[in-house]
Amino acid sequence: MDKGLLIVLSGPSGVGKGTVCTALRKRKPELIYSISATTRRPRDGEVDGVNYFFKEKEQFLTMIQNNELLEWAEYVGNYYGTPIQFVEDTINAGDDIILEIDVQGALKVKETFPEAVYIFLVPPSIDELKNRIEGRGTETADIIKHRLSMAQEEIELLKHYDYAVVNDKIENACSKIESIIVAEHCKRFRFIENKTKEEV
Ligand SMILES: Nc1nc2c(ncn2[C@@H]2O[C@H](COP(=O)(O)OP(=O)(O)O)[C@@H](O)[C@H]2O)c(=O)[nH]1
Ligand SMILES: Nc1ncnc2c1ncn2[C@@H]1O[C@H](COP(=O)(O)OP(=O)(O)O)[C@@H](O)[C@H]1O
């Protein structure tokens, strides 16, 4: 059986990764979402096991020690990491999975899965990014300032990604990501066809 696609979606805080992923999953219910572990406190409305697996620092460090994480990173004072077993099981079952992770984590995943599809979600402008993260109203002014300063550094790492998608309108961004997924499946299908011809 062909393996599923591993899709990595990154982008600065407030660009709309969560919003675009939710919309994408409505349009493509077969796309599996990787739920990360984090030591960040839940925001209002966030549910353990749905948005994140919320952990205490000790529990998170144990996950690292037990090699339960594909990658992990510290971002603005909290730990975030991707449980590895679920990712491996999903792609081995032939299903596509999307990881919504920061750039440090994405670069680590690239060491293990260079063949994954790396997509960077870009804001239409820095002013609009600021409006969105402030408008969400989930972080203090200090944290917002820190996250916006991280955004500048993160955008410089765009060159390590296969695709940049501007999140101007949610539906546009979703359509572009859907097209990328279709194209990547076609590429792999061609690769398998060529390999079969060579082997014959
Ligand atoms: N490396 C890594 N980053 C993650 C993971 N899960 C979430 N993140 C990233 O951590 C950063 C902060 O996430 P969060 O606190 O939910 O804020 P938000 O992106 O502004 O909604 C974002 O860049 C997320 O993409 C993960 O498992 N690993
Ligand atoms: N294309 C868009 N146009 C306008 N607002 C958006 C768009 N995408 C997301 N938003 C808003 O921006 C804020 C941040 O989005 P969110 O998905 O939480 O970002 P992230 O997960 O990247 O931190 C939210 O209030 C969301 O409703």
Automatic annotation (TrEMBL):
Keyword terms, alphabetized? ATP-binding, Cytoplasm, Kinase, Nucleotide-binding, Transferase
Its recorded reaction(s) are: GMP + ATP = GDP + ADP
Q: What is the lineage of its organism?
A: Bacteria, Bacillati, Bacillota, Bacilli, Bacillales
Q: Where in the cell is it found?
A: Cytoplasm
Per its database record, what is this protein's job?
A: Essential for recycling GMP and indirectly, cGMP.
Q: Which residues form the Guanylate kinase-like domain?
A: 4-182
Instruction: Provide the GO MF annotations for this entry.
Output: GMP kinase activity
Write the Enzyme Commission number(s) for this entry.
Answer: 2.7.4.8
Protein name as annotated: Guanylate kinase
